[in-house]
Amino acid sequence: MFHRAITGPTKFTSVSLAELVGAFSYALDITEGQPPGHCVRACWIGSHIGRALGLSSAERHDLYYTLLLKDLGCSSNAARICELYEADDLAFKKGFKTVGTSLAATLHFVFAKTARGSSFGQRATAVGNILKNGVAIADEMIHSRCTRGADIARTLRFSSAVCDGIYHLDEHWDGSGRPGHLRGDAIPLFSRIALLAQVADVFHTHAGRDATIEEVRRRSGTWLDPTLADLFARLAENEDLWRGLESKFLDARLVALAPAEASEPVDDDYLDSIAAAFGQVVDAKSPFTAGHSTRVAEFAMGIGGKMGVPQARTRWLRRAALLHDIGKLGVSNKILDKPGKLDETEWEVMRTHASHTQEILGRVGVLADLAPVAAAHHERLDGSGYPLGLQKHQIGRETRIITICDFYDALTADRPYRSAMPSKEALSIIEGEVGRGVDGDCFEVLRTHVASSQ
Ligand SMILES: [Fe+2]
Ligand SMILES: [Fe+2]
After folding, report:
1. 82 CA distance to ligand 1 centroid (A)?
2. pLDDT above 70 for 149
């Protein structure tokens, strides 16, 4: 059944942190333009390295989360990549990961991808800007990504070893990386393992086993720690490492590989924090949606409370509202931030964000009943919404609440193609949609709620 208007207390379902973070890591994969499961596969590779190094159980715990969350800050540079390179951020990020380590290869890639499809003049301007400011631009983007990722990990109560591991992911053994241009052993061990695991998975999915072994060898001593590269070459002789990477059941196999400390159960408070953290990852993707998920969640709690949603259930509703747009991580900023009307093809891509929300949250066992409610926030009572074109009787009260809060916040915030509307004007537009797009009871409560909070 797709939709239910459940109003009973939230049922506590036990879930381990390893399982939960593993499922959420799929949201980071789509932000990086990587095939689904990239972070899980990187964690599989890196965890084998950790075991081979003889790390303690506590160290392997921290390594495990560094690997799964290495891309936690990745949404924060998407808009900037799009703006500077005039390129699709997802394709750019994906392509960049397979570029060689030399300056010539990097420049060739950047120039080939910059402002593709634009006029000669536009390309020349964009390329000229990169030539002039390339180093500062790269510094700024990597700094923002690393800082953001480490900050979010800290709010999720991970240790400083995990936060440092995420912060220094892009450092290279020869000192050519960022953000600190650290060299050799000065780079945290978890960052060195995570970078190797990242390179190995990208080349494995892109070009197969032999190419992976060759690429790790080739990058040894430049990007990668030579000791770890040698260790990987030995591990690569183990068929089980590759079978795991190619297994449909890798998620479960990885959880089984996790040290005991990683399998601690997640309580409701921590689940709230994780939902809020991923809401921040979504909001960081575009300057036009800064704070959107958080505001929709606050509105939904206020309106839910006024509509008689039980207190325990408003907590559930808040999580759904925080995560309703998580699928936008899979939509390029070229579309999200377009300063004009979307064409039909772009709209088609934009609409996929709702089904991406279902796919991502549907992986999280403990959020299984929340996923369809969050994913249905663009459904309309007259059946003309998306992604499923649900009919009125299939759209539950909680979805209707999120829908109206999302609508109100979208109208009262700046958008690439128009300025923020005053709330009176926004309410008038929403009122015009009552009965067709949005629910009348929800609208009346929204109107009262807005009046009381001004
Ligand atoms: Fe949306
Ligand atoms: Fe939204």
Report:
1. 20
2. yes
